[in-house]
Structures are given as C-alpha cells and as structure tokens.
Amino acid sequence: KAPNLIHTDDTVDGVPGIVVSPTSSLRAGEVAITLPVDAAIVVLADSQSSGKSPIPNVLSDVAWYDAPQKLCLACKLLEERRLGQESHYDGYIQHLPPVKGVGRERIDTLGDWKSDELALLQSPDLVAKTIERSIRDDAWYDTLEQKREHEGENDEGKDKIFTRDEFDWAVSVVRTRAFAGDFSVPRNGIEGDYALLPF
C-alpha cells in the first residue's frame, strides 16, 4: 500500500518538508523519511489558484489555472527534463524509464496499450475509461501545441519544448509514480497536492 505524505515544519533548519509515513509493514504512522518540499517535484493545490504559472515555457497562467494537477505535474517534469544537467532533479530523471526504446515498457499504463490489447481486458467500462483518458490527453496536448504555435515557438529554427512522445512519457510517469497528499504550508486538510519523490 502506498505511504501517506503530509507536510512538516520539523526538518533540518526548519525548512518546510514532506513526511513519508508507511501505512503497513512498518508500524502505521511511523515516519520513514522526511525531506524538504523542494527535494521533490511538487504541485500544490493552492499554487494553481494563484493564477501564476511557475513554468511559463510550458503552461501559460491560464493553462496552469485550468489544467488538472497531474497534468501540471507532468509539465513540471517536462520542464525539468528540458533543463538537463541544470535541473536539480536531473539524476532522478535519468533513472526514469526512457521516452522511447528499451526500458520504456517499465511504464505500463493502459494509455500505452493498443486497441487489440485493451480488448483482452474484457472490461467495457475499463476500456471506455481508458479511451476517455486518451481523448483528454489528446485535447491537452493540442491545447499546449496551440499555445506554442500562437507564441511562435514552432517557427523555423526554434526547437519544440517537448514532443508528443515526451508528453505521453511525462503523463505516464506521473500516473505511475506520483503521490497525492496534503503537504502545503500550512496544511489545509485537503489531499490535493501531488509530488514525484526523487529517490
């Protein structure tokens, strides 16, 4: 079972952080790891309501406000990947499965399955939900593409911030590796924050 994540002020030098508490195996409620919030790639629920995107290269203020939090987290991951060795999280990103090729199968979400593979599930509801999610992913990718085209990013000589393969990769990483919890400062009792923990 996934551990609980909660906010704490009780870290080294009083820097706000995240507490990882197991829900089984170790004693329930026992703290396994405490780390500063900035050691993780995080999207806090209240940060979206500010209306100011921390990653304007990827999501405009309007898109940041409107986007689902997991998509915001995927976009933050894309931005950190784009930064390469300049990113504080480069070591973590290098250990994630690759965007393409050998090892990509380590991210196995239903969104990666072809229609004949989905048919093997013999679950019309699950297939319908997967198709619905895929349509939403397509719509968000198109929204991001239109923003970039509008801002002239795709002009000749300019590189794309990310490709469709990279977008699908980031969304799949978030779906398979993100934790949800309440680690805003102060805690607001709403478990609407998401984080990728680089360890």
Please, could you describe this protein's structure?
The chain is an alpha+beta fold and 199 residues long. The chain is built from seven helices and six strands; from the N terminus they run E-E-E-E-H-H-H-H-H-H-H-E-E. It has a three-stranded antiparallel β-sheet, with no helix packed on it. It has a three-stranded antiparallel β-sheet with strand order 4-6-5. Strand 1 and strand 2 form a beta hairpin. The chain starts with a strand and ends with a strand. Residues 154-158 have low confidence and may be disordered.
Compose a concise summary of this entry.
The protein is α+β, with helices and mostly antiparallel strands. The protein has helices at about 45-50, 60-65, 70-85, 90-95, 115-120, 125-150, 165-175; strands spanning about 5-10, 15-20, 35, 40-45, 180, 195.
